[in-house]
Structures are given as C-alpha cells and as structure tokens.
Amino acid sequence: MTIEGWFRSEGDVHLRIWLADVVFDYTAAAAAARNFIHDCARKHRCTIELIQDTIEDCRLLPRLPCERLYLGS
After folding, report:
1. For the CA atoms of 26, 66, 71, 52, what is the dihedral angle to 10 degrees?
2. What are 49's strand-pairing partners?
C-alpha cells in the first residue's frame, strides 16, 4: 500500500521522528508531513511514524520545524 492510500489529505497529523535512539513528536499539516516523509525516504536520514490513533492532543505538540518549507514541495 502506498502512503497516499491511508494518509489524510487535509488537517493536521501526528508525526514521530526517530534519530538514532531519540524520539521527537510533532504536529504538521498533512501536506507538509507527506512531503517531509517523501524527502526523508529519499535521503534515509531518519525513521518516521505517522501516528493515526493517538491519545495526545495534536494541538499540544510542537509544530514540525520548518514546516513551511515542506508545504511548497
């Protein structure tokens, strides 16, 4: 299944980014998250999880750094 098959097309999503053994949780616009995931998959920089069923309120998580850059991709 491709990412487009289960990825929300609008609104905010919860991203979990793993760099080595450190985890970062962010909220991002769905379009920015999709572009970010495609970019990271190409460069193999980190592991990313898209959290669909979360107990945390996405509004309480910090926004993805440089999110604006991924909205234009």
Report:
1. -10
2. 16
Whole-angstrom Cα distance, residue 6 to residue 36?
16
Task: Please say whether the beta carbons of 26 and 66 come within 8 A.
Answer: no
Q: How many CB atoms lie within 10 A of CB 24?
A: 15
In the chain, where are the structural domains located? 8-71
pLDDT tens digits in sequence order for the chain, 73 residues long: 445 555 666 788 889 999 888 999 999 999 999 999 888 888 877 888 888 766 567 778 999 999 999 997 5
Taking the C-alpha atoms of residue 56 and residue 70, their distance in angstroms, rounded to an integer, is 24
Global model pTM greater than 0.70: yes
